[in-house]
Fold:
Amino acid sequence: MLNFLLTGTSSNGVLTIQLHRPEALNALNTALLRELADTLDNAAADSAVRAVVITGGSRAFAAGADIREMADLDLLGVMNDPRPQYWARISAFAKPIIAAVNGFALGGGCELVMHADIVIASRDARFGQPEIKLGIIPGAGGTQRLIRAVGRSLASQMVLTGEPITAQRAYDAGLVSELTEPELTLERAQQIAASIAAQAPLAVRQAKDVLLRSQETHLAAGLAYERKAFTLLAATEDRNEGIQAFIEKRRPEYKGR
Ligand code: CAA
Structure:
């Protein structure tokens, strides 16, 4: 039984996960984060799920970690906090994640956005790392992923002042790949997810893995890694199917083998 997530899988292989704690602007308390990690673990094992959309509500994607819950933690509490393990499981999810962002994506909410492979945002979305205003700093990758997403100057400004940026600024900086009208954000994210879900699953998985690797290695190692993954795919049935379907001018039928 899910408390803080609404989920649904469409016939085209897209699992949509909606964060649902509207009374706290979807603040990511530990129970919600655990549910999200569990749901993604299940989705990883389910071959019917080929891409995932994560969304929130109209006012907030997620307003960060739950500040009331954080208030109860002392040094030992933070040291023994299980949350980093949940974040690690979200980060290890091997299928594509598309974030559909309306309203606030702050603190842990912005960090969750940065766990997505593709970010689609409503024109009214706001992105920020306001932790400095609470006397803390981002703790779920905010400094490390933001600097890679938007560059040092803007990342430093956001983390050091805590001031959010507009969706337009996030789009211009590369954090977001498309802007939409508010009522179309989820639909557009689901369209993109469906288009990914129609591709060969093993190729999609390798592509995500190789893209992510580029942020953790230098160019020569990244190129070698890419070539290994490219070579590996030569052993798949879907590679033959994709090429044959092109030659025969028909739609490929991928089987994930
Ligand atoms: N944790 C817990 N509750 C939260 C919350 C949060 N992060 N954000 C909002 N809420 C609650 C509010 O307390 C309020 O509850 P009540 O009605 O019971 O008082 C309700 O959600 C609605 O919020 P507001 O009345 O504040 O709504 P607003 O429109 O006036 O302001 C906002 C919206 C600017 C997002 C404001 O709520 C806000 O600043 N929230 C906190 C954002 C923040 O600092 N996030 C970082 C958290 S730390 C973190 O994430 C650490 C990490 O990286 C791991």
Summary: The longest strand covers residues 14-19. The longest helix spans residues 30-45.
